Amino acid sequence: MEKEMIIVLDFGGQYNQLIARRVRECNVYCEVHAYDLPLDKIKEMNPKGIILTGGPNSVYGEDSPRCTRELFELGIPVLGICYGSQLVSYILGGNVTSAPVSEYGKTEVTFDTSSVLFKNVSETSICWMSHTDYIESVPADFKIVAHTPVCPVAAMENPEKGLYAVQFHPEVVHTAEGMKMLSNFVFDICHCSGDWKMDSFVETAILQLREKIGTGKVLCALSGGVDSSVAAVLLAKAIGKQLTCVFVDHGLLRKDEGDEVESVFGPDGPYDLNFIRVNAQERFYEKLKGVEEPEQKRKIIGEEFIRVFEEEAKKIGAVDFLVQGTIYPDVIESGLGKSAVIKSHHNVGGLPDCVDFKEIVEPLRLLFKDEVRKAGRELGIPEYLVSRQPFPGPGLGIRIIGEVTPEKVRIVQDADFIYREEIAKAGIDKDLGQYFAAITNMRSVGVMGDERTYDYAIALRAVNTSDFMTAEAAQIPWEVLNVVTNRIVNEVKGVNRVLYDCTGKPPATIEFE
Ligand code: XMP
User: Alpha helices of 280-368 — where are they, by DSSP H?
Assistant: First the structure.
């Protein structure tokens, strides 16, 4: 049976991955591709619908990314969003121009609810706008189906041709009825059946992995985090003992984490796989000596990681595939698509050319974090592992600002342990997306007993987020912060100050480096 799919063509906007996620929430499979995906390829993929995303450009800019008129003649429904909507208009003969008043933020939009796209949508509804250009006049055969006081064409359509365009962003939560609109597009316009679910993902992934791997030997980079654990169990189910999991303890893990991972995936754990633990702490500390620049640290940790795997692979002999638990946000933020590079993720960007494997296998590459957790549950992985908060590949290396030293590692491990313990005690761990301690590179003067101290400041971070692409600082009760602070300054040698990070993402990122 052919899998039904919606394709999102990426024009560089910041919410693009969210569109894919929303479509998948409708139980319809969705992939994001660069805007210049060749037409032949699109025809081959045979999608039920195409969504053109927003983007930072002006359609009439010389180097602006564009699609061709032929895209609109494939007989496949198209929904243009923001820049994508302006493209529909521009390419089909409408007029796009700089708006006299830019709209940004929550805006009241008036809808023509006879449009299928706006079925069951209120006549006026709050939508998220973010544009400086707008459609001034629509192409022939298009009808205006939404407007605001300053935007004459907030939506337009040509239902006969299956072409729709909205100036606002239905994918973001601030668009109150956006999900309804996307669902209308997917079901009533593209006629998807919505039968894609996580169990289909797991089943299909296992079959695909078996087919791809055959009798090959597979090496899995297991970190003990949610992503690589789910990838490892997926692989174990697909190919059993053909899989060897290598767990590199790079000395940048949370307190006692190495032993915990070993107890779950090692010979005494519930899974039937080959498990090797490599204690490479000293080797990583040596490489990181004197290095302060965050991107350089990330690259070093990533490359060293791969080196260690190469060595293990050689010991095991004839390894065909390397598995990694890369997930979708890693791919996007590493700039492998068309969006700007924010951070190079060590499990994507740091791969050297000389990896001694036939191929890299990334079975979770298209999943968002919460989708990975769903897949984990589907695979029967224990809840405590599945709901574990994410931990970055470069580990504490990016929670130690400036040079990494064994002393700073010890400090941040101990502080983080106390923080996590108190958060769990307060019963708020399940409410938080991610929380951890970082060690700043700042030392400041304090007083302890009658002594002057000159010690490090620890920064505590806790965020609420659903997809880790955006986040807001969590409001941890003051009493909890107070207990954590007292315990850290009393119990962790080398710390005399504790700060709380109140910044959201954007403008900050969740991790410090
Ligand atoms: P940022 O700091 O980019 O983090 O807002 C978003 C999410 O990604 C995690 N993160 C990483 N995960 N390799 C990973 O596997 C990395 O290099 C990496 N850097 C950040 C971070 O913990 C958060 O959950």
Answer: 281-288, 294-316, 328-333
Q: What is the pLDDT of residues 483-504, one digit of tens each?
A: 999 999 999 999 999 999 999 9
Q: Which of 81, 145, 143 is nearest to 113 (CA)?
A: 145
Q: With bands split at pLDDT 50, 70 and 90, how would you rate the model's confidence at 196?
A: confident
Residue 171 annotated to the active site: yes
Q: Atom 4, ligand 1: which residue's CA is nearest? A: 510
Look at residue 336 and tell me whether its pLDDT is greater than 80.
Answer: no
Q: Whose CA is nearest to atom 17 of ligand 1?
A: 345
If you take atom 21 of ligand 1, which residue's CA is the nearest one? 392
3 state SS of 444: strand
Strand order from edge to edge, sheet including 143-147: 29-34, 5-10, 49-52, 78-81, 163-166, 155-158, 143-147, 95-111, 124-137
Closest CA to 225 of 197, 198, 252: 252
CB 213 within 8 A of CB 242: yes
Q: Catalytic: which of 26, 82, 220, 245?
A: 82
220 pLDDT above the threshold of 60: yes
Q: What's the CA dihedral at 301, 307, 312, 316 to 10 degrees?
A: 140
Ligand 1 probe mutation, 343, 399, 511, most atoms within 8 A of CB? 511
Question: Is residue 317 scored above 60 in pLDDT?
Answer: yes
CA of 140 to the centre of ligand 1 (A): 47
CA atoms within a 13 Å half-sphere pointing along the CA-CB vector of 259: 2
**Is 82 part of the annotated catalytic residue set?**
yes
Q: Using a 6 Å cutoff on CB, does residue 392 contact ligand 1?
A: yes
Q: Quick one: CA dihedral 253, 363, 297, 276, positive or negative?
A: positive
Mean pLDDT of the chain: 90
329 contacts 390 by C-beta, under 8 angstroms: no
pLDDT digits 0-9 by tens, 430-474: 899 999 999 999 999 999 989 999 999 999 999 998 778 889 999
pLDDT of residue 1: 44
CB of 393 sitting under 6 A from ligand 1: yes
Contact (Cβ atoms closer than 8 angstroms) between residue 154 and residue 128? no
At residue 49, does pLDDT exceed 90? yes
Residue 505 beta carbon below 6 angstroms from any ligand 1 atom: yes
169 is catalytic: yes
- Spell out the residues 6+ positions from residue 35 whose beta carbon is closer than 8 angstroms to its own: 9, 10, 11, 12, 52, 55, 65, 66, 67, 338
Distance, CA of 143 to CA of 109 (rounded, Å):
16
> Is the C-beta atom of 80 inside 6 A of ligand 1?
no
